[in-house]
Specification:
four-stranded antiparallel beta sheet, 18 strands, about 450 residues, ten-stranded antiparallel beta barrel, mainly beta
Amino acid sequence: MKALSASLVLMLGTGVLAAQDTGAPRRDASPCDALTLPPLTSVPGDSRPNAPLPFGPKQNAGPRPAPFTTGFMLVPDLNEAPKAQVPDLNGSPRPPQPANGNGNGGNGNGNDDPDPLGFVGGAGFYFMQPRFSTNPAFFRTSTVTNGAGTTSVTRTSVNEFDWDFQMAPLFWVGYAFGDDWMVRGRYWFFNESSQPVSVTHSVDAANTISSIGTVGVLPFTSSPLPPGAPADIIRLGSTLRVDVIDIELAHSVLCGSWWLQFAAGARLAELEQFYNADLTNAGNAALGLAGRLNQQREESSFHGAGPTVYGQAFYLLGGGFSLYADGRASILYGRSHQAASQLFLGGLPAEQTFAYNNTHDFFLPIGEIELGLGWATDLGRTRWLFKTGFVGQIWWDGGSASIPPGGTAVQSPNFSNNVIPLATATSSNLGFLGWTVTVGVQF
């Protein structure tokens, strides 16, 4: 698997920036404040129940770390004052709170606000299944003729690769600064193979002619066999590799019971797909049939970069729990490359090789959504966030095993008369569906 150059992307983590005293003049509280002083209890004119937000620490927790984020949202510190005290949302100073035994606040400066700078990190995984609009493995045709030889019926079937759900590890790191801004990065990768395919092509029954053909730009065909010939054994497989890095700047906002975050940045991505097919036949010396070997190898790839935008919303339920939804859109510009080769042994001449290469540039749009449940808690001086939910992605024109990103799966002229005469799709969308589990920590 090729390594991506430089740095970080994607994560659908969680959190929100904690408040900081500014000493600014009083002003009326806005329904949506860029994370300044989230309420500890009910505030005047607020009809919500007298309960803290779910992501805050325990009361009397002592000195606290900086505002928590899982890479996408900073979790506010709700222990700014005793429960009986309503915080001032207008920026005026609050009384100091002994938290570390030195008569000062949690940061030792006579004020209980932590320094609004802080590192965060986390890890998790996707458990996803690749989906394709088309991903053929091979074609099979069969022509049956009646006894008189006057009529015939031809049937063609297309068999696609099957994929199981697979793990895709993800990691992220972030740094919060100011009251409501942070920079973050994330990396995830997927590297798995389809279920292997094995097909046997034997001698045909009476009045039947059948053949099996592979796909791609350099395919081969298992032709009808004479009586007594051993069967052709065809084995096929596909591999998919994806590497994604995002780096972006995020801004958080509190609106009532909602934590909102918006981010923009850059994404780098590498997408590779492989198609492998082998045909073997032992031959039959008594019948004068030589052995046969076909090896087909095809690879398509995309390497690109471009802008990405992200939005996330948390609805706070209480007790540290929340429902969340987020979405991301990216458009990458890069280079699509397709390469193929085939080795043929057993013909005339005895060894033949073929090769193909093609490159073109194009735009690759990507859309992503995630829906699920989060829970936050404090452990000593660290703050933890657990998150799980449904995830879906679509990479438009992302290609498949035999179709390169950006489309076009034209068969080589060397083989145009040697394969099943069936039109092949010229483009394919790539998608992922599954589940995600992540754990983030502020330290």
